Amino acid sequence: MKLHQLRYLAAVVQNGLNVTAAAKALHTSQPGVSKQIKLLEDELGFQVFEREGRNLTRVTPAGEAVVTRSLRILEEVQNIRRLSDEFRDETRGSLTIATTHTQARYVLPPVIQQFRQHYPEVKLHLHQGTTEQIADLAADDRIDFAIATGKHELFPTMALMPCYRWHRDLVVPVGHPLAAVAKPALKEVAKYPIVTYLFSFSGKSSLPQIFERANLTLDVALTAQDADVIKSYVKLGLGVGIVASMALDQREDSDLVQIDGSHLFPEHVTWIGVRRGRLMRGFMYDFLKLFASHLTRKLVDQAMRAPGHEGVDALFAGTKLPRY
Q1: Fewer CB within 10 Å of terminal CB in the chain, N or C?
Q2: Tell me, what CATH number does 79's domain have?
Q3: Which residue segment(s) compose the domain that 118 sits in?
Q4: Is residue 220 part of a domain?
């Protein structure tokens, strides 16, 4: 049994049992991957995959146990490499973060600026996407940190540590009738078309449910992933924007009025996720502390050892999170 066979096995599983896609991800040939998988199965004495013709259709029960242990072994191999890097030079390395547009655009810039001042030799890689896209990157173990809000069930391998609280606000053009109302009622908001995020329309606190509970009709003019796109269409007069409270820039958005929506919409908590079992380098702990000052090294280590999301939630119960 060879290490590269376990890598091929993991790649096949992570690419939906598509051997061609796995070979592309591994920068090798499809026949080479198939051959190594077959050699591994011959050595094990049982099939890891069920097949229909040349296609892999599912992982066998015995194969599930092999895959689980293989992923664990590959993670430890990565940890050994990180340990080597740490002892060679703790100021060098790379840090890959996946997050949403709002975090990348409005929250992370000062954090990354401070981090770069301390660690100019650490290469930073920032991926932006929806929570589902971030979850895919986490499942493939392509990132060090995930930063998002809600949907814990999409991140079973990560310890999700709460960082800060926020709510949604209304944004309207200067001169809009709501601009003169300090705390508009939901009934007043419902008079206008709405421009907001795609993700706002799923989950237990979705906008449709909020309006439905008040027996109001939600008139959606436009949805988008990007807060800047939402604001652009609000400026064009398409409707009332509903965005994260931190997603406005006083200089760039001087032609918009931000209206506090904390009395209308539920509070959310943004978290940062780290894969359980990952060897944390010194600069990784420092990044976490810059992003959320209560995330000390001791607390992070405890969170990564805590059993499941319930264990992490219990660890942070009673923690007073800052409001963004």
Answers
A1: N
A2: 1.10.10.10
A3: 91-165+268-316
A4: yes
Residue 179 burial (10 A CB sphere; 0-12, 13-18, 19+): middle
- 213-250 pLDDT tens trace: 999 998 999 999 889 999 999 999 999 999 999 998 88
> In this model, does residue 111 exceed pLDDT 80?
yes
Q: What is the mean pLDDT of residues 110-125?
A: 95
Residue 270: phi and psi, rounded to 5, are -90, 135
Q: Indicate the helix (H) or strand (E) that contains 169.
A: strand 168-173
DSSP 230-284: HHHHHHTTS-EEEEETT---TTTTTTEEEE--TTTS--EEEEEEEETTPPPPHHH
Q: Are 193 and 221 in contact (CB under 8 A)?
A: yes
pLDDT for 87: 61
Structure tokens belonging to residue 88: 């060679």
What are the tens digits of pLDDT across the range 136-172? 999 888 899 999 998 899 999 899 999 999 999 999 9
297 and 154 part of one domain: yes
Element (H, E) at 201: none
Query: Which residue type does 179 have?
Result: A
Distance CA 10, CA 4 (A): 10
Two structure tokens written together for 269: 């908590």
Calculate ∠ Cα 31-34-36, nearest 5°: 110
Residues 299-318: pLDDT tens digits? 999 999 998 999 999 999 98
